[in-house]
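Journal club prep — side note

Before the paper discussion, L.F. wants everyone to see what a predicted structure for a comparable chain looks like in token form. Sequence:
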Amino acid sequence: MRPFELDTPDSVAAATAEPATYLAGGTTLVDLMKLNVLTPQRVLDINELPLRGLDSEDGLRIGALERMGDIAAHPDVYPMISQALLLSASQQLRNMASIGGNLLQRTRCTYFRDVAMPCNKREPGSGCPAMEGAGRMHAVLGTSDSCAATHASDVAVAFTALDAEVRLLGADGSRTVSLAEFYRLPGDTPEVENDLRPGELITEVVVPRLDWAANSTYVKVRDRQSYEFALSSAAVALDVRDDRIADARVAVGGVATVPWRLHAVEEALRGLPTTEESFERAADVAADGARTRGANGFKPALLKRTVIRALLELTEGSR
């Protein structure tokens, strides 16, 4: 780890006065600094800023500095949010990591984290070894010839399914961006991962009210039961009336470069009976546009089975 200056701002205005690297839970930043993947000269510890709280009066408003473990245990959050958080990392990390930091965590691509290897995210234009190398964990949706790294956050998948927004605050004022538009596809500029501007902070996450999201789940498929990133995951909410699906929300993770909303699956589900045959038919379009490379060729089929498994879990009592 290289030397750096550490400051503790006493207000949000002071923190956003000029660009800096922000420290919240530190569960991603400190790791990457130890590996010299990130080498900031100035780090601001923002843990004392007033960016906490959860308001559930009309939807959810979650402060960016709320800890993952606390939000997972809150009785007012939708099941898919709680489950996505509980299936993330370890209890110790969930007690430290912030919601805002989780949304901004960097990819776990091994090439990105190894400074001896080229990486277009780390050094634009240097190349992407994953195109021809070990890519079992890599994305099959939203990729480009420059990058196929998966997005690491579980709860971002649930938030994307629920049309969540992030409130951003910087020296030029505040703005609100939908999470679906906040994340950037890699294209030719994989180093630009989101719409956050220099000096801006995520101050809160806003989830619109959706009463039938009480019937929701998050399914995560991984190589081991705990402390592992997703090979495939699905956040699903269903509005079921008279054993038919009136509406649906479906987003997936572990298979794409950003949290991936499956609008086509949602549309295919509407009006169908809650049968396994219906779910298999709707899931047929889940991997449309997938682009596989060698070792990750299993992911399109796994993605479809993950979506079907989540749908079956939600409708078990009605079949």
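L.F.'s comment for the group: The CA atoms of residues 265 and 285 lie 6 Å apart. Keep this in mind when we get to the figures.
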